[in-house]
Amino acid sequence: MVTLNVNGRSVQVDADPDTPLLWAIRDHVGLTGTKYGCGIAQCGACTVHLDGQAVRSCALPLSAVQESQRIVTIEGLSPDGNHPLQVAWRALDVPQCGFCQSGMLMAAAALLAEKPRPTDEEINDAITNICRCGTYNQVRAGIHQAAERGISG
Fold it and tell me: What sequence ranges are listed for the domain 2Fe-2S ferredoxin-type (predicted)?
């Protein structure tokens, strides 16, 4: 049994210590916004925040997460879906299929928290999530739109 701080709530998870954080979040906590894509930390669909840093939860075992660490999922980014990045995503029609978007949003929010006015190069370096629909230009535009409003994730 492990205690996790997920979206500001203390939750008990009864799972093997080798269980990836992704499956603890989805199967044990019941938050399904974080997606499974590749299982090897390459695509980024599973991105969540761990103490404010974007991490790929599919490759992070529960044993590596401390009870004191804050985990934020896409559900915790905004209680009403109106985080400035989510507003920009809707305004610019960023998602197509949408599968990768929760991970993209979480990566973008971590970037803006670190660099409130990122350059295109900084966005390209930080957002390594894979979008099979190829919406990278819209993602970049959405990050810039949120940054222009002076909003950090």
Answer: 1-77
